[in-house]
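Supplementary Note 3. Input sequence used for the single-chain structure prediction.
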Amino acid sequence: MPSYNFIDFHAHPAAELRRLRNRLQSAGAVASVLYPIDVDPTLSLTLSGLFRLARDLGMVVDAKSVVREVYDLVSKWPEYMIDPMKLWYEVFKEGTSEFFIPFSSINPSFGSRYVKQKIWEMGHLGLRGVFVSPVLQFFNPAKSPAFRELMEYSEKNEVLVIIHIGMPREIDEKLITHALPNHLSEVLEEYRPNIVVSGLGTSPERVSLWVREVARVMRKYDNVYLVTPDINCYLFNNDSARSIINSLGADRMIFGSGYPYRRYRDLVAGIKCVEGSTNIRDNDKDEIMIENALDLLRFHGFKLNMIDTLNA
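The predicted structure, written as discrete structure tokens, is reproduced below.
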């Protein structure tokens, strides 16, 4: 088994929490960040967001096909996968709060009033991080007033933002490469909360393009970090990615697996790709696997016994 202890900075509560914890611990995880995804299970609001996004981009999209893909995914999830309040409750009810770090999720495509309500809920629960996915929530970061409200709140209150802008093969390539990285850059001209970018779900043929697109944004904005599900082996075991690591620095990269969306063997393979990498030094590996995550969590006021124990 892998010898590194690590914090998994990208996992989803798409399974029973104790079982999920046990599997991650068996791979060497000492903690894991959990991201719910705020979507409408009926997909009626999601469909509206998809049409709005297509209109903003001047595109025609196969709405039926895209919504079917989302429904096939959402229908398999437990309730706490799409409800941050239920996830928060479940983490404590199941006795897993010493291991899991639950985030909120807010869907900007549901409008400004909804976002304000969810911001209040996030503050009430004491959650210090929020997960958004333009890919699955169907909003355009540059044209969404509700997303800008969330960014403004996050900057003022030092809330950590995780943004999923992966490039799954099911989504039109133009919708991803021409809109999301560029439009995220536009928003960052105005608001500067710390942001962690994830590409979970990016298809293998798009990984190289996706990494280059995100690296361009990261070079311009030093408040943007990269979490690594689906790109661990490309990033750390590919000579063509060496220059990206050198230009960005290991201190802005954080290990993530995408488990259980990704299989357990993919989790283990990702760990081995970091462990066995000749593109990074041993102390860089420690930063990527655990130290960078701790630094961000500490900065954003996450008060958990796990962090205190690791820093003792």
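The longest strand covers residues 6-11. Residues 6-311 form a domain with the TIM Barrel fold (CATH 3.20.20.140).
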